[in-house]
Specification:
Elements lengths: L6 H13 L6 E12 L11 E6 L3 H12 L3 E3 L2 E8 L21 E5 L6 E5 L6 E4 L16
Antiparallel strand pairs: 1-2, 1-3, 1-4, 5-6, 6-7
């Protein structure tokens, strides 16, 4: 059987990082699990809690199976989280850059949507509004912004 903090988790983290290499920002679903032990001396990590983020539902399930086999693991809650992965746009569609001081940095907003949501960047100097990832045909945020 595997190790709760060793090779199995390192391989899961490596697989997750490889699957998240993207050219632009994309909303991904990940899973966070926190494994707690009764004392740091009984933990393979030497601490009372270890938090891991993994990419598929099978991965926290695998860690729960390992934690259940450890008589000193006392809790192992997990939850689904959404993460925006990738690079944010650096320039507005009108051409000028987002970088700079507070007068040129975009206003950041979030639009909830059935797809998971959209990061929204609003220009302070022009009427440009950019939703990232772009609002698609199946999004319920349609009409709020024109995406490139």
């Amino acid at each position: 059987m595997g190790d709760l903090v060793g090779t199995d988790v390192e391989q899961l983290d490596h697989d997750r990082n490889q699957s998240n290499i993207r050219a632009s920002a994309v909303l991904t679903v990940e899973w966070r699990i926190i494994i707690r032990w009764d004392s740091a001396g009984n933990s393979p990590a030497g601490t009372t809690a270890v938090e891991r983020t993994v990419g598929t539902p099978a991965q926290p399930r695998h860690l729960v199976v390992l934690a259940r086999a450890d008589p000193h693991a006392v809790a192992f809650p997990y939850r689904r989280v959404r993460e925006l992965v990738g690079d944010e746009p650096t320039h507005r569609r009108t051409g000028h850059a987002y970088a700079g001081g507070s007068a040129t940095r975009p206003v950041r907003d979030w639009w909830p949507c059935r797809c998971g949501g959209h990061l929204v960047l609003r220009c302070r100097r022009c009427p440009d509004v950019l939703a990232d990832p772009p609002v698609g045909g199946d999004c319920d945020a349609k009409g709020r912004a024109a995406s490139p």
